Amino acid sequence: MGNGIAHVFAQNGWEVALIDVSSDQLNKGLSTIAKNLDRQLAKGSINAENKDATLSNIKTYTSLAAGIKNVQLAVEAATENTELKLSIFKEMDEHAPADCVLASNTSSISITRIASVTSRPEQVIGMHFMNPVPIMKLVEIINGYATRQDVTSFITQLSKDLGKVPCVVNDYPGFIANRILMPMINEAIYSLYEGVAGVEEIDTIMKLGMAHPMGPLQLADFIGLDVCHSILNVLHEGFGNPKYAPCPLLTNMVLAKRLGIKSGEGFYSYTQGNKDLVVSSSFR
Ligand SMILES: NC(=O)c1ccc[n+]([C@@H]2O[C@H](COP(=O)([O-])OP(=O)(O)OC[C@H]3O[C@@H](n4cnc5c(N)ncnc54)[C@H](O)[C@@H]3O)[C@@H](O)[C@H]2O)c1
């Protein structure tokens, strides 16, 4: 997600400091950005000059303190782990300029909680981009309990300037996107678990019947079953309502490391070079 966010800002003329603890990840990020720019070039949506300008707007850092020291806005997109994000926000707060806005791309962690470890909770906000960032139009903007109105207006206008469509929501578990999406995915997994229908039938019904571009089981594989599982747990704990509890089949698949595309197997099987959707042998 970090490389997609850097790509979109840099393409729109922002100077970007791309920060990661791993220099391997930084190199991977830069090569993904270059590959995605080549795709845009081939489609004619940018020219060679735009590509060069975008790449030259990005500098990489493995030191957060060095990367963040002169920035107007920081968008955190590190691994989805509460303790990690809290420690990163403490560090960002310490090294970023006093007027810098601190945003998080978190899919599910409370913005109010993240803001509470900083000395500037009114300048902390959620800026939830969708995957893949250069293509997906939505930015879900999440106001923490203390977020100042002018900070929300700044991020809203900025999202429009990036060519995105912002939607502002309040900070409750799952915000809007995942509060609605995850129960649908969970229900699809329950339908499979209870033998109501097979993988292909469930996805085809939702694709053709509801005009969804991807069925919920394929989407779960794309997002990562571990990510779906952890967001459902956030909803379950946050609302205390059993309707959000992850389906036991999902829990088992996560324990068995059947995580979807990233592990090569989920509801479907993935082999490099094969673009056909093949239902996993566990569900045939
Ligand atoms: N993947 C998605 O579809 C998606 C969609 C929307 C939002 N998000 C959110 O975006 C964030 C990132 O997701 P992802 O899928 O790109 O995660 P990822 O685990 O693939 O990448 C996270 C990156 O963070 C780096 N990192 C870890 N600790 C760090 C630290 N202390 N300082 C700097 N960098 C650090 C890792 O090296 C890695 O490169 C998460 O909060 C996730 O919820 C993900």
The DSSP helix count reads: 12
Calculate the mean pLDDT score and round it: 97
Question: Which regions are unreliable across 5 or more consecutive residues at pLDDT < 50?
Answer: none
Strand order of the largest sheet: 3-4-5-6-7
User: What's the alpha carbon Rg, rounded to whole Å?
Assistant: 20 Å
The gross shape turns out to be globular
Unique bound compounds: nicotinamide-adenine-dinucleotide
Question: Which keywords apply here?
Answer:
single chain, 284 residues, alpha/beta, 49% helix, globular, binds nicotinamide-adenine-dinucleotide
Task: Characterise the protein shown here.
The protein has 284 residues and is of the alpha/beta class. It has 12 helices and 9 strands. The strands form 3 sheets. A 5-stranded mixed beta sheet has the order 3-4-5-6-7, with helices on both faces. Strands 1-2 form a two-stranded parallel ribbon. A hairpin with an 8-residue loop joins strand 8 and strand 9 (278-279). Helix 8 packs across helix 10. It is globular, with a radius of gyration of 20 Å. Bound molecules: nicotinamide-adenine-dinucleotide.
List the helices and strands and how they pair.
Blueprint: H1 2-11, E1 16-19, H2 23-43, H3 48-56, E2 58-61, H4 64-68, E3 73-76, H5 82-95, E4 101-104, H6 111-116, E5 124-129, E6 138-143, H7 149-161, E7 165-170, H8 177-193, H9 199-210, H10 216-223, H11 225-239, H12 248-255, E8 268-269, E9 278-279
Parallel strand pairs: 1-2, 3-4, 4-5, 6-7
Antiparallel strand pairs: 5-6, 8-9
Helix pairs in contact: 1-2, 8-10, 8-11
The site of nicotinamide-adenine-dinucleotide has 20 residues, from helix 5.
